Amino acid sequence: MDRTRFAPDRGLTTRMVATMFMIGLLYVVFVGVLLALLRGAWPLILIVAGGLFVAQFWFSDRIAAFSMGAREVTPEQAPELHGVVDRICALADMPKPRVAIADSDVPNAFATGRNEKAALVCATTGLLRRLEPEELEGVIAHELSHVAHRDVAVMTIASFLGVLAGVVTRIGLWGGLGRNSRDPGTAIVVILIPLVSALVYCVSFLLTRMLSRYRELSADRSAALLTGRPSVLASALTKVSGQMARIPTEDLRKAEPFNAFYFVPALTGGQSLAQLLSTHPTLEQRLQQLGRISVELGRR
What is the dihedral of CA 227, 228, 229, 230, to 10 degrees? Predict the structure, then answer.
């Protein structure tokens, strides 16, 4: 992590390294199995796997921003939002990222970018309309903490490897099995490859979910310590979470695929989803942590 005034989090760093190592190892083993089973398609598998990974790493911020409807805005177009980002960046002693707004009534915010130079922070029109200026500062501090700790890039890459496993499997099946349909071993390969692919996806899914929940708590903590106002961030969390129930189901469904990047998850099924599958800790966990930080700051 580059030097900023955001509080370092060794637990987050350890989890990011461990997650990337496990998923990377899993992915290497997966590609190795495919190469062993589909010997005739190995050039295509390597080209597709390498090409998609490089493209995702370099263009992940643009892909995410485009998918979530973000449009970059100038200080003249959004002076209030730029002012908040300027203040938090000055407080954190970090470079200012690009600033964007997403035209959505879902109150949320997110950050993307593989590093601070390529970072983008975005707030939705629904969030800007509902939060007070000090609450917005807490949310932006939370998002900029993700950028400073670089967990945005790790989450993007980690989640992509699971998707890539499915793509490479389809390419391998199309390219390697079509010419060998009369081979007695083909039936076994057709069964094994989807099973291996499913296992890779499930393991990568669970690893990214565990990292995602921890990084949200870490960002809450770092933002609260930086601004010195955990109660304001708690107010923003409570307000945004409460407003989610009033958003049309159709809008929430459009936002759900990007929950891992959002400040608060957009859920159509309420809080009944299994904690194991959640991208975020519960609201109660986040508020309890902010309450403890308030007590710590009061003692200091």
Answer: 100
- Judge whether 134 counts as a catalytic residue: no
Residue 212's H or E segment, with its range, is helix 186-227
Annotated catalytic residue within 72, 80, 143, 256: 143
User: What is the SS3 assignment for 80?
Assistant: helix
Give the tens place of pLDDT for each residue, 206-249. Answer: 888 889 999 999 999 999 999 999 999 999 999 999 998 888 88
- CA–CA gap between residue 10 and residue 236 (Å, rounded): 26
Inform me whether the pLDDT recorded for 174 exceeds 50: yes
Identify the CA nearest to 146 among candidates 103, 104, 97.
Answer: 97
CB 60 within 8 A of CB 153: yes
Q: What is the chain's Cα-based Rg?
A: 21
Q: Does 216 appear as a known binding residue?
A: yes
Q: What angle do CA 21, 23, 24 make, to 5 degrees?
A: 60
pLDDT in tens, 23-40: 878 877 877 777 776 666
Q: How far is it, in rounded angstroms, from Cα 84 to Cα 131?
A: 12
CA gap 1, 250 in Å, rounded: 38
